[in-house]
Design a protein that fits this description.
Order of helices and strands: EHEHEH
Number of strands: 3
């Protein structure tokens, strides 16, 4: 069954495999864990390892308008969906 109004989607449907990901989570002891839950995380998927690595570098970099002592309060880790990438 197709989408009746595809222009209303926030993002186009994923039609190809994206086996390489970046898992974003909060560090232990972060006060936002009380708001978002202890197991909160988000995974962003990419088609190639190069795309993933470029996105990871962009996500984890120091923001242009950050104060001198500010650091990103997120934990980034590379993940891979082995079923999609290697057929395991």
């Amino acid at each position: 069954m197709g989408i009746s109004q595809p222009q209303n989607l926030r993002a186009p449907p994923v039609e190809h495999h994206r086996p390489f990901g970046v898992r974003v989570s909060l560090p232990l002891g972060d006060p936002f864990r009380k708001l978002l839950g202890l197991e909160w995380h988000r995974v962003h998927w990419y088609a190639t390892p190069a795309e993933r690595d470029a996105a990871l570098a962009e996500m984890s970099r120091r923001h242009l308008y950050s104060r001198s002592g500010d650091r990103p309060a997120l934990v980034f880790e590379k993940v891979e969906n082995l079923v999609e990438s290697r057929g395991l």
